[in-house]
Amino acid sequence: MSFKPLDKRRLVLGRNSLSDSLFSSALVALIFRVTGVGLVAFLNLMIAWKAGAEFAGYFFSALAILMIASVASRLGLDLVILRRISQAAGNDDMVAAREYLRKASLFVAATGTLTASLLILLAHKQAIWPTSEAYLLFGFMISSLPFLSVASLVSEAFKGLGAAHSSVLVLSVIPPGVTLMVLEFAVQFAGPKGIGMAYFAATAFGSVAAYSLLLFRTRNNCKAQENPSLFTCLREARPLWLLMTINRGLLPWLVFPLLAIFATSEEVGQFGMATRVAMLVGLPLVCIEAVLAPRFAHLHQMRDLRQMCSLGKRCSLFGLLATSPGLLILLAPEPVMSIFGAEFIGAAPVLIILVLGQFANAAFGSVGLCLTMTGNGKDAAIASFFSLSVLAFCAIFLIPAHGATGAAMATAAGLISNRLVGAIFLYRSFGFALFPSWVRA
Q: For the range 18-21, what are the long-range contacts, defined as Cβ-Cβ under 8 Å and sequence gap of 24 or more?
């Protein structure tokens, strides 16, 4: 691939504004995401205190199945809605933006309802739900699937409108916040299965609030400049469905149901709480990637290869430095896990492995994102398929012998293999990797 020569003066002038914009956007995203992660962390703490490791395991097993089913039932529409609404907003055609979301939301609500009903029927009397309390918790949580799917589309729509803060608010702040508000009452009223009731109520409320907020944001009485077609969106989404199901569903969540099958519910609960702590370590990189994607796409379109390399390496350095304080957890993993209760102290080795995996993940940089946003989606898909294979293989062989620790090893192996293969493809395509350094274009 050939790239045009770059004007040094333009790069010098543009580099600072681009970097300043990137890091200021990352800071805003970090504030909102930290709020959401803080609410989720406190929610998990409350679940651990009120339900113990066993019911925490049922909660995480149900949550994992819910997340995988939600991604799969959306059929890849997320990125299509993001692109379509971004284009409509660029043309100041809010009526078309609203119509795209309305048609897609009705569709995913229908597929989500059908999927949830099927899962509830299939889960009856399954071994991972050994009691009626556990099965009812699963039933309440999985019933929130259509609401979760609609909220996810609304979140993507807000990204398309350039309202990243609203995107984080409707999916990462409102649901855990509302769940915390009603959790105490729900558990007192219904016992441990009240956790599922609280989650359902919060997801339903969050979905309605998110959709209402977007309707207010896109209020416009002008006639639409285009006729939004759901079938066109579905056709565009078809090649994205499997990749999104792997990246957003199977890779982060598959290990939970496998752990529930091959180990005990208590170990699922321990592993779930350890993953939530490890997520705090990888949070800076997630925030950077949320605002880095359009920059990569723009620079690739402008054929500014050196600027793309420079920006990617500096963001990797920023992400690695921001992740480094999380390594302090390695000095005292037992006290950290004891916050959730005495039942969770045994998950200290799990936490160590997951934190090291997050640090290694940050060291490779945003290679998958760079591949996707530069038209190399096929390479990103191969990396995802490979990492899923590594994850499943390691989980099946390690979990029966090592339980939650084996699940942590499988998770870290899948994460690192994804970044490693992505880095190889990125170097093959562009001649550089995104290892952290302060490189000037």
A: 18/295, 18/307, 18/311, 19/311, 19/314
